[in-house]
């Protein structure tokens, strides 16, 4: 897509620090890292949401994500893998990307910021979500 910053990175129109590349995937350093080594892993084809990736590409992409995650576990002993889907979930760049954020003891990064709540509707919610997974 012509106005997508990540497509421009894939096309090498915008310089970035690429750490891995194969037929379906690209991994590069986040320009505003949450921690040293913060890496983004993206599919080379443009999809806004995870749900839009065709199955064969998704499988290849997941294999690559795991390969990079394995490598990053040698960089630091802990990593968070995050993927924001949609504006409401904090997705700023509308091209699927996984964040791999290396963690270090005492780094102060707050990933787990949600407050838990009591939900009296768990059974209802279960049925609703189950019904959405039919196709
Ligand atoms: P998200 O909020 O999940 O959409 O995250 C988008 C991420 O893309 C942010 O962490 C940005 O720092 C990163 N980003 C945006 N533009 C670039 C770029 N040109 N090179 C590397 N990372 C970028
Ligand atoms: Zn794109």
End-to-end distance, in Å? Answer: 28 Å
What's the order of the H and E elements?
HEEEHEEH
Measured on Cα atoms, how large is the radius of gyration? 17 Å
Mean pLDDT: 96
Binned strand content: 15-25%
CATH H level, superfamily name: HIT-like
Which molecules other than protein and nucleic acid are bound? adenosine monophosphate, zinc ion
Integer count of domains: 1
Q: CATH fold name, please?
A: HIT family, subunit A
How are the strands of the largest sheet arranged? 1-2-3-5-4
Low-confidence parts lasting 5 or more residues at pLDDT below 50?
none
Query: Structural class, please?
Result: alpha+beta
CATH architecture label: 2-Layer Sandwich
- CATH class bucket: Alpha Beta
Main β-sheet, in a few words?
Answer: 5 strands, antiparallel
Helical region count?
Answer: 3
Give the total of beta strands: 5
Fraction of helical residues: 25-40%
Molecular shape = globular
Question: What structural keywords apply?
Answer:
single chain, 135 residues, HIT family, subunit A, 5-stranded antiparallel sheet
Description of the molecule:
With 135 residues, the protein is an alpha+beta fold. The protein has a single domain, classed as HIT family, subunit A. Helices cover 28% and strands 19% of the residues. The protein has three helices and five strands. It has helices spanning 5-10, 55-75, 122-132; strands at residues 18-21, 25-29, 39-43, 78-82, 98-103. A hairpin with a 3-residue loop joins strand 1 and strand 2 (25-29). The chain is globular. The mean pLDDT is 96. The protein binds adenosine monophosphate and zinc ion. Residues 5, 14, 16, 30-32, 40, 84, 90-93 line the site of adenosine monophosphate (AMP).
């Amino acid at each position: 897509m012509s106005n997508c910053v990540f497509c421009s990175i894939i096309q090498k129109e915008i310089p970035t620090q690429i750490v891995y590349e194969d037929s379906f995937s690209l991994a590069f350093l986040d320009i505003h890292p949450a921690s040293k080594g913060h890496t983004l892993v993206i599919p080379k084809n443009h999809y806004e949401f995870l749900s839009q990736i065709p199955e064969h590409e998704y499988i290849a992409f997941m294999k690559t994500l795991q390969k990079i995650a394995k490598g990053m576990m040698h960089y630091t002993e802990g990593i968070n893998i995050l993927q924001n889907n949609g504006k409401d979930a904090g997705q700023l760049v509308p091209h699927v990307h996984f964040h791999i954020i290396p963690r270090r003891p005492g780094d102060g990064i707050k990933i787990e910021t949600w407050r838990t709540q009591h939900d009296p509707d768990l059974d209802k919610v279960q049925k609703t979500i189950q019904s959405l997974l039919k196709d």
